[in-house]
Amino acid sequence: MAALCACSGPSPRSLLQSIDDGAVLIGVKADQPGLGLRGPGGGFSGFDIDVARYVVSTIAAGRGRAEPRITWRETPTSQRERLIDNGEVDAVVASYSIDPERAARVGFAGPYLVTRQALLVRRDDQSIRAAGDLRRGKALCSVSGSTSARTARGVLPGVRLTEFDTYSACADAVARLSADAVTTDEVILAGFAAQRPEEFRLVDVTLPEDSCVDGRLRTAGAPLAVERYGIGLGYGDDQARDAVNAALRQMIESGEWERSLRRAVGDEQATRTLARDGGTAESLARVGDLGFLAAAGTACGDR
C-alpha cells in the first residue's frame, strides 16, 4: 500500500467541488487586452474573465451555493495542459483553442467563441498585406505551444518564426523592429491594436496557396486557421463539462455574452466576429458540439 501511495501523482481538481467549497482557481491570461489583462492594481478584466465569472456564478446559484471566491492564476500557453493535469487550477479560460491533441488530455466545455488567425503589424509598415508577404525575408513572431505557431510553420514554409512565452512580448518585438508581424487569433490581436492604435494595425490573411497542415489539405483563399475557444477542465469530468456548457448557453441566451464581447473588443470587431461565424444563434448551437474534432477533411495525398 505504501508503494502504491508513493507512486500516485497529482490529479486534476474538481471544479464543482471547488465551487461547493467556496473557492475556485481559474487559469487565465494576464497580458491580452480585451480577453485577459491584469491591471495596475492587480485586478483582471476582459472577455475571458467575464465568461469565467458568469460560469462560476451561474453554476454556484444552480447548486444552491453562495458565489465562491475566484483566484486568478496567470497561465502561459505552453503550461495550460500541465496546470490542469497537476490540479493547479480548476479550469482554464485563456483563449484556449480546442484541437485534437489537447482534447486527448483535457476535458473541454464550449466552444464559446470562434475566431480566425490574423497578423498584427506596425501601422506604418505597408509591406505586409497578405500571408505571402511574410516569405520575403520577414520575421514572424508567435507563442510557444500555440496552434498559431504550428499553423504558421505548416502554411508558410521557410518563414523566420520566433516564439516567445506571451503575445505581449511579440507585440513589443514588432514595436522595437526586431520582428515584422505577430500571428495569432484575430480577437487577441484586435485587443493590442485597440490598446495601441498609433503603433499597430490588423491584417486579415488567408492561405496564399493550397497547403498541407497536420496531414490535411487546406485550400488557397481559406482562413489561415479557424480557432474555437473552450474552457479546459480535468479530462473525463463530464459532470463539470455539462454544467459549464449549460452556463455558457445561459450567458449567450441572456445577451450578456454579446454585451461582454462588445465591451471587450469593441463594436467593430465584435460585429465582424459575429457576422463571420453566424451570430448568437450559431454560437448557441456550437456549445457542447465538438464534432469538428473528428472532421477529417481531405488528406494531402488524396487530391
What composes the largest sheet? 9 strands, mixed
* Percent of residues in β-strands: 15-25%
| Helix coverage percent | 25-40%
Distance between the termini: 57 Å
Structural class: alpha/beta
- Mean pLDDT score: 89
Features:
3-stranded antiparallel beta sheet; 37% helix; 11 helices; 303 residues; alpha/beta; disordered N terminus; 9-stranded mixed beta sheet
A few lines on this structure:
The termini are far apart. This protein has helices at residues 2-7, 15-21, 47-62, 80-85, 100-103, 147-155, 167-175, 186-195, 238-254, 256-276, 279-286, and strands at 23-28, 31-32, 36-38, 44-45, 69-74, 91-97, 107-122, 139-143, 160-164, 181-185, 200-203, 211-213, 216-218, 226-233.
How does this model look, in words?
This protein starts with a helix and ends in a 17-residue tail after the last helix. It is of the alpha/beta class. It has 11 helices and 14 strands. The strands form 3 sheets. Strands 1, 5, 6, 7, 8, 9, 10, 11 and 14 form a 9-stranded mixed sheet that branches. Strands 2-3-4 form a 3-stranded antiparallel sheet. The radius of gyration is 20 Å and the shape is globular. Helix content is 37%, strand content 25%.
